[in-house]
Model the fold of this input.
Amino acid sequence: MSWLELSVEIDQEAVESVSELFAQVGYNSGVAIEQPFVGSPDGPEYTIDAARPVVVRTYLPLDEHAEEARARIAQGLWALGMMRPVGELQVKQLEEEDWANAWKAHYPIRRIGERFVIVPSWLQYTSQAGDVVLNLDPGMAFGTGLHPTTQLCLLLLERYAVPGQRTLDLGCGSGILAIGAAKLGAQPVLAIDNDPIAVQATRENVERNAVGEVVTTVEGSLGPGAELGHWLGSDWATKQRRAHPTAGPVAFDPDAEFDLIVANILANVHVLLAPHLQRALKSGGTLVTSGIIADREADVAAAFAAAGLAQIERLQEGDWVALTHRRP
Amino acid sequence: MAKKVTAVVRLQLPAGKANPAPPVGPALGATGINIMGFCKEYNERTSSQVGMIIPVEITVFSDRSFTFVTRTPPAADLLRKAAKIEKGSGTAGRGAAGSITREQLREIAETKLADLNAVDVAGAEKIIAGTARSMGIQVNE
Done:
């Protein structure tokens, strides 16, 4: 799909006015503002440089309405130009692929915990004794191993995954955790996600890591989770679904089936699914949950306690918390 | 080597609704950070404010890690709320869309002060008054 990027250079004082103008026509009312800054030469500190001009951008789908929107912006900028200096409106055509893959150039080989090594599928890595190598192309699914929520789960998998354990990965994204568990010997592993893009990414990554005999991937969720839809919501998710039609998510509600469940999702989904997660665990089974932002931790902990799960460990990195529970 | 700042990007987005489409994808893809990681964080942090536009200032570091802080809603949204109107006149200086009082202007300037790179409230008031004028909102004395 093609897009138009509209941008203009202005002074700091006009940012609010121009943002308002751009938000009226921009996709998703979105505006991006590139702030000039002065960075410290040897550390992460910086200050905003208010003296230099700011670039404000917005984006429109390149369709039959694009020209009208561009003209409207140009007219608005002309009127603003009566009051203060406004640069020339710049228009650039962009393709979705231009940005969808841009981050890949900076996706490094990364060691996590004691044994895991995340290797982007397009890079070469010679493994050393004891390494558990995960070859990944996350595509547009969540789970690169770069995010603290994923890293905490991998650390906890190293601690709790035991060969032969029946394992569930709820909200599998790229499949990174299901594959990690399988490589530590857990089996069989069921990987489920409501997002068809994630299911496809997991299947490809399972294949890439030669764990297809251990890991089964299904589009679905636990109980009411199947009705939640794509985790990003909005019309973007609807469009993705239309582009990748499937039979839709399956609702699982297993009873005492898993030794280990790992779920790196969001706080409100943990709260919603707490009783279903509890029921899916065998007695003595372990539940590793992540994706919990610190200020929602109390809600999640309360929901798990109410479901009859006992907390055995808590890890935090930055604002993100991972909790481990056991079914008594 | 200590990490350094490589970009500072401010995005205005509907709370809880970031996705890889524009502006998030193109604005952040170029900086090299993982877009899905940003979407997950933004949506989780703003989930209680759905229905509002919540700007974020994202700092990208040389190791492609990032941090962000959420900011106050855009001046235009605060002005619309104060003037009790849905939309500005759309064209700067043309047609009056509504009006606010001096006190309301000062209140908005105080709310926005930290985010405007203004020296003091008087400076912030000047910026907000300019935004109001560009939206066709009058400030009554």
